[in-house]
Amino acid sequence: MKIFAQMMILLASSVICGWSSAASLDIESLGSAEINNFRAPEADILSTGQPTVDQFQLMANSGVKHVINLRTPGEDAGFDEKAAVESLGMTYHNIPVSVGVGGINASNSEALQALLDEFEDEGVVVHCATGNRVGALISVSEFEDGSSIDNSIIEGVRWGMTSERLQQVVRENLSSK
Fold first, then answer.
1. Distance CA 174, CA 108 (A)
2. Which of 60, 99, 110, 159 could form a disulfide with 135 if both were Cys (CB 3.0 to 4.6 A apart)?
3. What is the full DSSP assignment across 119-141?
4. Residue 44, Cβ neighbours under 10 Å: how many?
């Protein structure tokens, strides 16, 4: 019970800090835009499912400068995302992460973390189809940085890993390390 209470306090404070400290992005506008699995886990970083062209426009207007897409080339967004993002003045980056073929790994996690570090204090959105792969890679990164498996999963959930199936896959992968 004590561990559960501590995790709930950690989760609540993380959510509050994530939303309240995001000063340079217009979180209020973004939060009301019905973006799939919208999260603001850090002051200048958003985590989401696949945004639409109109949602990318809102992101650009709200201070987002960089887009990191974790979807594979075979996943159709319904539009040319790279062209749309760049036409709005944002930079586009792709780290193709497949859940079924071992894409949730340290190499992809490190690639994502390198981009997030490069764009520190700038507006960034990281997305996949649902936001789950974003959270999964963050879980791997947290574990690689020394967090426990449980705390790594909690951080992944905060970033958008809502799928219990994927949480279990990540937990099993981290347990085998």
1. 14
2. 159
3. TTTSEEEEE-SSSHHHHHHHHHH
4. 21
75, 79, 126: which is closest to 100 by C-alpha? 75
Give me the long-range contacts of 144-150 (CB less than 8 A, separation at least 24).
144/106, 144/109, 144/110, 149/174, 149/175, 150/7
CA-closest candidate to residue 49, choices 68, 61, 36:
36
**pTM for the full predicted model:** 0.85
At 76-94, the pLDDT tens digits run 999 999 999 999 999 999 9
Q: What fold, for 2-175?
A: Protein-Tyrosine Phosphatase; Chain A (3.90.190)
Instruction: Tell the burial category of 94 from Cβ atoms under 10 Å away from its Cβ (0-12, 13-18, 19+).
Output: middle
Specify the length of the chain in residues.
177
**Residue among 42, 4, 50 at smallest CA distance from 141:** 42
DSSP 163: -
Strand runs labelled E in 22-63: 39-42, 45-48
Domain boundaries, the chain: 2-175
CA dist., res. 149 & res. 171, Å (int): 7
What local confidence, expressed as pLDDT, does residue 177 receive?
A: 76
Query: Is the CB of residue 158 less than 8 Å from the CB of residue 135?
Result: yes
